[in-house]
Amino acid sequence: MKGKIILLTVCILLVLPALPIRAAEPMEEEAVAQLAEEVGDMYQICPELLQAIAWKESRYCPEVESKGCTGLMQVAGRWHQERMKELGADNLKDAHQNMLVAADYLQELVETYGDPVMVLMVYNGDSRAEDYWKGHCGPSDYAEEILELSAQLEVQHGK
User: Fold this and answer.
1) Architecture per CATH, 26-156
2) Where are the domains of the chain?
3) What residues form DSSP beta bridges with 70?
4) Contact 115, 121 (CB under 8 A)
5) pTM across the whole model
6) CB 103 within 8 A of CB 43
7) pLDDT in tens, 66-103
8) Helix (H, G, I), strand (E, B) or coil at 66
9) Which of 152, 147, 146 lies closest to 57, judged by CA?
10) How many C-alpha atoms does 54 have within 13 Å on its Cβ side?
C-alpha cells in the first residue's frame, strides 16, 4: 500500500509541471457579440451564427488550442495560410483576426454550398458532409446545435 502511495505521488509530481498555471480566460459575451456584429456586417453573415460558432468551438476563449485548431472559432491555421496572408491575420489567438479568417472561410462555403447545414458540416470537418449533400444522411449534431443556438441568440438580441 505504501509503495502505491509513493508511486502515485511521484506520478502526480511528474504531471504537475505540464499543467497550465491558469486556464485561458473567456471573453465577455457582449464583447463576442460586438465582434460578431462587426465581422458579420463585413461578410454578410448572421452575427448570431458567428457568436454561436464561437461558443461551441471555444466557449469564448480566444487562446484555446485543440487538435491543430486555434482560437475563438477554432481555425486550423495549417489549412488557411493563404487566406490568413490575404487578410493580414498572423495571430489566430487574437479574437478579431480569428473571427475574420473564420468568416472569410464561411463566406466561401456559403457561396459554394448555400445550405447552412452543409456549410457548418464542412466548417466542422464532418466526414459525413458529402453524404449529407447527396441526401444520404441527415444534418450533424454540430450543425443542428449551432443553428439552434444562433436562433436563440437572435431572439435574445431582439431579432
Assistant:
1) Orthogonal Bundle (1.10)
2) 26-156
3) 65, 75
4) no
5) 0.84
6) yes
7) 999 999 999 999 999 999 999 999 999 999 999 999 99
8) strand
9) 146
10) 38
